[in-house]
Structure prediction request, 987 residues.
Amino acid sequence: MTPRERADRRRGLLLLAPTLAILGVVTVYPGAWVLWLSLQHRIPVFGVERFAGVSHYAFLAGDPRFWSAVWTTAVFTASSVTLELVLGVLVALALAGQRRGRHLAFSLLLLAWAMPAVVTAKLFEWLYHPAAGLLNFLLGARLNWLGDPGLALPAVVLADVWRTLPFVAVLAYARLLAIPAELVEAAQVDGAGRAATFRHVTLPLLRRILAIAALFRTLDALRAFDIMFVLTGGGPAGTTETLTVYAYRGLFQMLQLGFGSAVGVVVFALVMTVAWAYVRLLSAEESRA
Amino acid sequence: MRRAGLARDALVLVALTAYAAPFFWQLLTSFKPEADLLRLPPLLPARLTLAHYRVVLEQSLMPQALGNSLGVAAATTLLALGAGLPAAYAIARLPVPGRRALLLALVASTAFPQIATVSPLYLLLRALRLRDTWTALVLAHTSFALPLTVWLLAGFIREIPRALEESAAVDGASRAQALRSVLLPLLAPGLASAGLLAFLSSWNEFLFAYTFTASEASRTVPVALALFPGVFEVPWGDIAAASMLASLPPLLIVVALQRALVRGLLAGAVKE
Amino acid sequence: MGGLSPGGLALLLVSALLAGGCTELAPHAGPITLVLKHARILGPADPFPGLLREFEAAHPGVRVRSESLPWSSDEQHQFYVVNLEGQSPGFDVMMLDVIWVPEFARAGWLLDLTDRVRPQEFAAYFPSTVAAATWSGRVWAFPWNMNVGLLYYRRDLLAKHGFQPPVTWAALADQVRRIRAAEGDPTLEGYLWQGKQYEGMIVNVLEALWAHGTGLLGDDGTVFPEPERAAAALGFLRRLIATGVSPSWTTAADEELSRRAFGDGHAIFLRNWPYVLNLLEAPGSRVRGRVGLAPLPGGVGGVGAGSTGGSHLGIARGTAHPDLALALVRFLTGERAERAMAAGAALYPTRTALYHDPALVAGNPWLPRIHDLMLAGRPRPVTPSYLLLSTTLQPELSAVLVGLKSERRAIIDARRRLDYFLASNR
Prediction:
């Protein structure tokens, strides 16, 4: 190693130091501490602090409410990510042919994505109002969207899809623009119809970006909190209680910091597992391609 | 052909307007007189009123919350850019040991679920007596804004040809001068994109803000909106007005700084 | 959730004015400022600012700053937890929902008042509110206002069809069926109550448990000490909805939703708190003069009783002025202040004598009747783990009411959870 290289190395570490120090305090330290917390009975308001071993995890294994939250999280994630991908691609296709008013189109689209999820929740709470909601008015129905255990989760999914579809659409749109027009034209010259062109030319080229979008969206959906917490609070009858909402209730309503942390660790493990699996899948595809 | 194209473009705009309808409906609601709120039809009220905005601005916590959110989001952005820019440069340009692991760790920490860190952070902030302060929120928000910023900036820096800096250095400029006069101007759009995303993520954040704040001293906009007080009746009109105020900065960013926003959004997903 | 507790609901007012009008801090050591945290107080006339000025006049050099809490009980609780835990709270006197007193006392947030209270001082209050202010043999707060679950009925409809207010639940269901059949009005509902997933539902379930001769916590702390009776009580509530005695939207109903439907003349019976009476009898109300009041029915193996609620005033342990804070609490829970609140706000006093005070009764002829109902009311379990109990039960019981879970299953699941958490709370 030349002295210059050594100096650069030192300089690099120096430049990294503030970031590493901050992340050490706000991410790494809490990340390690939460594991330790999850092994404790910890109720700060009553000064309770004693070792619990794995008893929180053992309790969770036989806890119907936990498994119901796992199921709700899975259904929420699968349905909202799927819908976002499908609708996002449709929007991207529509935008790709747009010649005029593109700025306006993007403004209309991105607004939903850029505003706080709490605002989204308030917007939809009002749309879902049983008596004065726009949705029931347009449907000519009197559905109790947020109070009916069969409708509440779909209602939450709809709000989430509305909010995050622009993300998928913008990514897919950028990729579409990068597809050479000749490719599509060539396929059409070969007699392929629109649908066939989309299936055999466009979609394969979109594949990678959609996989990335799906990864980001899945990771977000697994830890989603704001929408259901504000819109339904996990009700009715716990039908929209995801793992994150369940963990939050344990932490700050029941004030069981140890138990709530154990649920948080489960979310953490889930997110990391999914991230890892996706990365494996993507790199396997890359090496095949 | 041209005609058909125009019609098609218009159709897409109409469809997107329909998509954004929940926002416009709330906008309309925020101007509806109290008496018309729970009546539907008619879709359009006979007259509009500013009463809800007056209530929100004069009688609710919203003005303080807007101030808190602006302060916290601005401080978070500055901290993330200030600490993130040198780190991004080091990752992009210098032979840092364990670079790949570092990058992976950065990506992993953007995916870190907040619900897992909220309880230790709560205990930490409690021990430091920082609850219900801006500092608490800025620290908490930096946990996701900083890795995001480093990640984005490292990508933007790598796009700038190294030769540009080197040629400046050859011309006799010191390395620091070269960075300032060559790299920084080229990086400006990237800094804007990263800053915008950091700002938005802090502005929109709810879980930490809900947990670490208690009073007007630090309550941010999403929390104030989620807890918007009613007396007996849900004040739908006031909530609509408060929602509009809460989405004002995002709205401005989407309309006025769209290019930088989209650049950042794409960079986050497509790089590496 | 975010439900209004009886205590939260009872308190009314536009206190933004109050909070806004006098928020500037004394920059140097001048007059002493006492900070009072309380929920909004509503009512036809708000006597609160006047009372505070009166206290200031009697204590020269003392200013009282009144700050309002968030509206819902859950959010008030969260506010206190964040502010009281491990730091100086920034307020001296606080309004407490009765169900929080043991929790806050155990957490060490309240000043122990045992040695400062004169033995005779609490004799003037309803015994149940005194019990709620006491935990572990010590006194932690002063009772401020009082609440109890009541049965409202449409006097005109019952009279028209020749009925007396029902004493048993079976009679109520029967009256609902007959009156609705005879009236032939599809918009007329039967019995309205609160079945949404929140604290208010727990209160309704408790009342059903009592009517079935059982309770939520046994003497030894067992949850659902008699599971068979508890299952019968839950099944009874579920059947109210399933058989149409109560509308299907009961599972989304809170105090206000049910109050409004009844107030619009769309129901025969309503379970609610006393504050509702003022609204039902207000000028312009569609049911004005057509409402009756009765105790909640019983007779399914138990005596009907309404759950009591309300709020107390406690003193933050970290206060710099314990004596002045106590003086303020005494003043606000004293005869004069409670009388003013009873006359001006829709708050019911904790002092029993006021219910027979001629001047007050002239303004509200229902007072003696409400007094008897309050005296017969029963408190919710007095335990530091009340909130844990309630939040754990809410989704389980809500699942029963909407028909997603059997009563037995919900009871087994709830017991398992509570056994675990109560053990770790110890």
About this structure: The CA atoms of residues 85 and 150 of chain B lie 7 Å apart. The interface with chain C takes residues 59-60, 126, 129, 131-132, 212-215, 227, 229-233 of chain B (CB under 8 Å). The mean pLDDT of chain B is 90.
